[in-house]
Amino acid sequence: MDEEAKAGSKSDTNTNAAAEAEAAAAAAAPPPPPSSSEAAETEAKVEEPEEEGEVVERLVELVGEIAAISDFRNSYRRQFCNLSRRIRLLVPMLEEAKEAPTPLPVASEAALRRLKEALDGARELLRLGSSGSKIFLVLEREKIMKTFQDITERLEQALAGISFDDLNISDEVREQVELVHAQFKRAKERSDSPEDDLFNDLMSIYNSSSSSDVDPDILRRLSEKLQLVTIYDLNQESLALHEMASGGDPGAVVERMTMLLKKIKDFMQTQDPDMGAQASTTDIPSKDNSTSPVIPDDFRCPISLDLMKDPVIVSTGQTYERGCIERWLEAGHDTCPKTQQKLPNKSLTPNFVLRSLITQWCEANGIEPPKRPAQHSKAPGPCTAAEHSNVVELLQKLSSQNLEDQRGAAGMLRQLAKRSAENRACIGDAGAIPILVSLLSTTDVSTQEHVVTALLNLSIYEENKARIITSGAVPGIVHVLKRGSMEARENSAATLFSLSIVDENKVTIGASGAIPALVQLLSNGSQRGKKDAATALFNLCIYQGNKGKAVRAGLVPILLELLTESESGMVDEALAILAILSGHPEGKAAISAASAIPVLVGVIRNGSARNKENAAAVMVHLCNGEHQQQHLAEAQEQGIVSLLEELAESGTDRGKRKAIQLLERMNRFLKQQSQAQAEAMAQAQAQAQVVQAQAQADMPVERSLLPTSSHIPD
């Protein structure tokens, strides 16, 4: 099928979704190998050194870039300002060096190159001081000061090697540079560390296990000294931490720094409940401002740390606030901010489940549910007269009785719909969708494949979704899903997924008989077909009314079979669907009847962090209610207790909560089991004592029957 279209169908439903997906696919594709001449040219560029004049020009540019860096609002402010000021004083020397005779002596040329390398390092350090994480700068003070010392020493050595005579430097400028050189020399011999109190306060929170262990006075001091007072300050710090993680800093360290920032942010919001009103993207309108409930971590955007209004899922499975992740991607990043995995594409899928949970939490806590920001996507421009004429001509062929014309026109519309949002709008406006829908039942395999794929590509455009539904396309798409070729079935499943992004369409599709056909494709389809079926089923099962239909279609045994086939590559999808179904009575009963406990325990033992989380979520539902004792006993036999203890320590936030819930239930079960054993043992002992007492009571009678010694003959 059209990979660009399929990727786009899983992204946001705005009009630019397909274009973004096509760009992502193009970015993911390996570039063609360079020709021998291109390779030789690249190699020459790498090896060719800069000319002397170019070195001086680059030095002037570097100093200009350094001069533009400002706003050093952190504990190293004095050191950063001094370094920047001293470097700026070198400008007159570099301007005069432009007029120096060439070629320069080897020693002077080498000194200029050393100066350039030192200035490169100084620029990066000053950028860190201006826009880097304030928390990182304090916690890593030894590393920062070592870098300061290293750069200062390199600058001093480079200036010491410059010959003023070789560069024709005037006496006045020479005196100024000598003064700067002397300052670098003195700075090299001393080390100014930031205040210890700030470092100690940060370390005390950094090493604390929970927010309740933190002294509020420490949090207040930190917010003031680090100048993390406003929502803007806190959000900028959060972005700086994620930028660091993107640059390759250890993820665990950055994650702990983010948790530290979260503690400061929570404290600031408790001090000022209306703090969020300072920024429209972060406010939490409360019906009762007297209390500010703590936002669950899963409801916060990992970038901004604020309650999410429009959560979306990226291709790594992580969820972010749409606006935050869009800005991250627009800044040129191609990694997931939280996991640092490279994003295979930049598609964004709305997280309807999480949005619903956030709404429920807000209502339960007396908070007005966040309103999803209006999508101001750029509407595709109108098509030209020539383009419109071309589409009309294709529609005429599509409506003809000639099979070749139909097949060719359907193929052309498929390609046009794949290329751009403008084409999708133009084709939809021209009335193509009802004609395409009428051809879904064609017996020509190629025409059917073209038609259903054209509808898939057209469905990416928001207005076309409604047109496809109102034209009665769903029964025809389900017909292709059941009886079409494998490619047609794959694209039918992908089309249903794209249409189901609209909540109302989940009901329509579920009532059309699509779910059993999707389950069948998940069972016997190609690898890509299984993926398409799984994503469509996941989306459809978000609607409560579709869960029972999926269970009755035999979905649960197929999902468990996929869990046991690691080579299938479907473990993530299968567990995600099971986690949704386990909250439904029929789903829970089906999972229980399928003897899923050993499989789920195996995932908790060997699965990825996300899969462990989902497996634990399913176990929480199973170990509750009618068969709780049976499932807990079986899980205990499988050795789940130690696995849950490990998950509670090192799992995801949701995984930790599920593990703790299961451990609490397991502990109650073991306690009840121990009490039952103790009662049984006590009862057995009591019965034994009764028997023993009865035996002792019968002993004299037995003795009286024995002959006495006088009756025994000699």
TrEMBL record:
The keyword Isomerase does not apply. Pathway: Protein modification; protein ubiquitination. SMART domains: ARM, Ubox. Residues 1-53, 273-295 are annotated as: Disordered. Keywords: Repeat, Transferase, Ubl conjugation pathway. Pfam families: ARM_PUB (PF25598), PUB10_N (PF25368), U-box (PF04564). Residues 17-28 have a biased composition (Low complexity). The keyword Transferase applies. ARM repeats lie at residues 431-473, 513-555, 554-596. Residues 273-293 have a biased composition (Polar residues). Residues 294-368 form the U-box domain. Its EC number is 2.3.2.27. It catalyses: S-ubiquitinyl-[E2 ubiquitin-conjugating enzyme]-L-cysteine + [acceptor protein]-L-lysine = [E2 ubiquitin-conjugating enzyme]-L-cysteine + N(6)-ubiquitinyl-[acceptor protein]-L-lysine. SUPFAM superfamilies: ARM repeat (SSF48371), RING/U-box (SSF57850). One of its GO terms (biological process) is protein ubiquitination. GO terms for molecular function: ubiquitin protein ligase activity. It is an enzyme of class 2 (transferase). PANTHER family: U BOX DOMAIN-CONTAINING, U-BOX DOMAIN-CONTAINING PROTEIN 13. This is U-box domain-containing protein 12.
